[in-house]
């Protein structure tokens, strides 16, 4: 999704926060190598944890820093697969940076997109779907 947004960004400058549970952030490397990721863009890797847990404050601080810099037209957050979208929305709308400044004074949540594996979700609601008999 991030790669598609980069391709369609036109002349916008994008700040990206990428979360990965592992120490090595594979998505960060893929985004940086993308031809549509420019020098005007910036990526912040939030690694070795989850933004809904131990990296929550780092996420809020990173978004705050990107927002107050006014160097970016939009800020994207790519979370790991275990993060609940409502948690991210709450952090953006109610979070405070380490200095106690409210994030909502510097930016606002515009859109929250969730991408799911439709086949796996279907299997959870309809056991036996996709099994070979």
TrEMBL record:
Gene3D superfamilies: P-loop containing nucleotide triphosphate hydrolases
Domain CobW/HypB/UreG nucleotide-binding: 1-122
SUPFAM superfamilies assigned to the protein according to its UniProt record, in alphabetical order: P-loop containing nucleoside triphosphate hydrolases (SSF52540)
InterPro entries assigned: CobW/HypB/UreG_nucleotide-bd, P-loop_NTPase, Zn_Chap_cDPG_Synth
One Pfam family here: cobW
Top-level taxon of the source organism: Bacteria
The name this protein goes by in its record: CobW/HypB/UreG nucleotide-binding domain-containing protein
Origin species: Lentilactobacillus hilgardii (strain ATCC 8290 / DSM 20176 / CCUG 30140 / JCM 1155 / KCTC 3500 / NBRC 15886 / NCIMB 8040 / NRRL B-1843 / 9)
Organismal lineage: Bacteria, Bacillati, Bacillota, Bacilli, Lactobacillales
């Amino acid at each position: 999704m991030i790669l598609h947004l980069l391709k369609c960004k036109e002349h916008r400058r994008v700040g990206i926060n990428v979360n990965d549970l592992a120490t090595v952030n594979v998505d960060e490397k893929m985004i940086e190598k993308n031809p549509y990721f420019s020098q005007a863009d910036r990526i912040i890797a939030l690694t070795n944890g989850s933004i809904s847990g131990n990296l929550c404050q780092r996420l809020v601080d990173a978004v705050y820093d990107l927002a107050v810099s006014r160097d970016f037209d939009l800020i994207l957050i790519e979370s790991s697969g275990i993060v609940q979208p409502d948690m991210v929305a709450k952090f953006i709308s109610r979070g405070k940076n380490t200095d106690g400044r409210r994030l909502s004074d510097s930016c606002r949540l515009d859109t929250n997109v969730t991408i799911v594996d439709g086949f796996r979700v279907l299997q959870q609601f309809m056991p036996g779907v996709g099994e070979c008999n």
